[in-house]
Amino acid sequence: MCRHLAYVGPPVTVAELVLEPKHGLLHQSYAPIDMRGGGTVNADGFGAGWYPHPGGAALRYRSAAPIWSDQSFPDLARTTRSAAVLAAVRSATTGMPVTVTAAAPFAEGRWLFSHNGVVRGWPHSVAGLAAGLPVVDLLTLDAPTDSALVWALVRHGLRAGRDPADVLVDVTAELERAAPGSRLNLLLTDGAGVWATAWGHALSVRAGDESVLVASEPIDHDPGWQEVPDRHLVVARPGTVTTHAIRTTDETRT
Ligand code: GLN
After folding, report:
1. Is the CB of 102 under 6 A from ligand 1?
2. Where are the domains of the chain?
3. The predicted structure's pLDDT at residue 38
């Protein structure tokens, strides 16, 4: 069910993260190791986002085709160098369309976002949550998929200037209350920091003084990889990584 990663650190090429590592996203697209909740390959599209100017807006390349079949992406990935990258390969949830606009990263300004998982009972379970969004956000949803709605909810919080960590925790808790049993691995970067949730799917972090990499599955055999416990939020930038337990509102009340 989708694999994603986000990197912040000294500039690297997109290929160094996605194509070249032994277990980079290219390898994870056809040979993932830890696909909890079904799915065997991630062949329903992919995408990568990067920053041409530090502190500026992100650019991205996305496709509805399997990453291994794209004849143009390798050249683009080898020549695109950035101090931050967010990339994903997609395995569409049953019933959801395979279309380029459903592939992560979702983007606005400097924000890049990916959702690995599924919203249970979609779309009825979360109709109430969606109703809290401006109508124009619903009319311009990237795609008729659960992940696009999750992005619209996250983006709404970010547009209000809220702390990204609070936004991810609140959106995760709200979705879990409306659609219990959902898998909600969210991944967000602004080019300087990475915010990620582990909620039903695998997630690991490789942190150093200079760089940080958060990924569904370790992309190499570096001994520095650490698994993020389930139902936790990671806030990471080079030199500092913190992990916090996420409580749903119901748990907070008891
Ligand atoms: N449910 C989302 C989609 O269909 C994400 C899929 C996934 O994580 N496999 O796009």
Report:
1. yes
2. 3-253
3. 67
Reply yes or no on whether 2 is catalytic. yes
Would the pLDDT of 34 be above 80? no
**248 and 20 Cβ atoms separated by less than 8 Å:** no
Distance from Cα 117 to the centre of ligand 1, integer Å: 5
CB of 182 shorter than 6 A to ligand 1: no
Cβ of 1 below 6 Å from ligand 1: yes
Q: Is any ligand 1 atom within 6 A of the Cβ of residue 24?
A: no
Confidence of residue 80 (pLDDT cuts 50, 70, 90): very high
Q: Contacts from 205-210 at CB under 8 Å and sequence distance 24+?
A: 205/234, 205/236, 205/241, 207/236, 207/238, 207/241, 208/9, 208/238, 208/239, 209/238, 209/239, 210/9, 210/10, 210/238, 210/239
Residue of minimum CA distance from atom 9 in ligand 1: 1
Q: How far is the CA of 210 from the centre of ligand 1 (A)?
A: 31
Residue 57: C-alpha distances to residues 33, 101, 197 (Å): 33, 19, 23
Ligand 1 midpoint to CA 80 (Å): 26
- CATH fold of 3-253 reads Glutamine Phosphoribosylpyrophosphate, subunit 1, domain 1 (3.60.20)
Tell me what pLDDT residue 42 has.
87
pLDDT band at 35; cut points 50, 70, 90: low
- pLDDT on residue 251: 53
184 CB within 6 A, ligand 1: no
> Cis link prior to 123 (omega < 30° from 0)?
yes
